[in-house]
Amino acid sequence: MKKQTLLNLLLILFVISFFVTPLGYESKILLQRIFATSVEIIPADQARKIDFDWQLKDRNNVQFNYSQTAGKKPSFVYFFSSWREISVADLYAVEKLYDSYKDKVDFYIITNELPAPVDEMMQKRNFHFKVTYLIIGEKMPFDPEKIPSGYVVDKNGYVRAEKEGTGRWNSDAVHQLLDSLVQ
Question: Which residues are paired to 105 by β-bridges?
Fold first, then answer.
């Protein structure tokens, strides 16, 4: 076999490995993280107000109202799916943001999945944030079909940052925004 033919065969096998092996899944996550784009920071005079009255539930199916955060702290609302590599890629930045602001910001990291696959992903990826569960059919101010998507909401209910798709949630711009909102 010629050297060029062997190299072509190896290249083809390498490309195929991205589609049929865990190497491909992990590589897609890495590429999503590398090519994540900036989060849109919304000036205060252009921010839209959301309704605080919507229901969520915790891991034990105990329901609570998002209004518990009203007037107290800014909040970070994020929708994800544990099986989508684009969501998993984004969750690494969300985890870092959570580690930096967990005592200053209310985090609502939301999925509509059952707890078992979410727990498995959390353990495998060494994530520590608290997961919130969506109640299907409940009214809410955001579109839960846009996955992944995230929002920073100030304590008065104005959306001050948002991003659909993979975003740089642990960026300096987001940190500056949150620092200004927690004061």
Answer: none
* Token reading at 59: 């891991």
The residue type of 59 is R
Give pLDDT tens digits for 51-75: 998 999 988 889 998 988 888 899 9
Could you give the angle at which helices 85-101 and 115-125 cross, rounded to 10 degrees?
70
The domain of 60 spans: 38-182
Q: In this structure, are 176 and 99 located in the same domain?
A: yes
Sheet holding 40-41, edge to edge: 40-41, 159-164, 149-153, 75-79, 106-111, 131-134, 55-57, 63-65
Per residue in 7-44, pLDDT tens?
A: 878 777 777 666 666 656 666 767 766 777 778 889 98
According to DSSP, the β-strands at 159-164 and 131-134 are: unpaired
Quick one: 1 and 22 in the same domain? yes
Predicted confidence at residue 33, as pLDDT, reads 66
Report the largest interatomic distance among the alpha carbons of the chain, rounded to a whole angstrom. Answer: 72
Angle at 95 between CA 121 and CA 120, to 5 degrees: 10
51 lies in the same domain as 93: yes
Whose tokens are 């590398």? That residue is 34
Whole-model pTM?
0.84
How many CB atoms within 10 Å of residue 23? 12
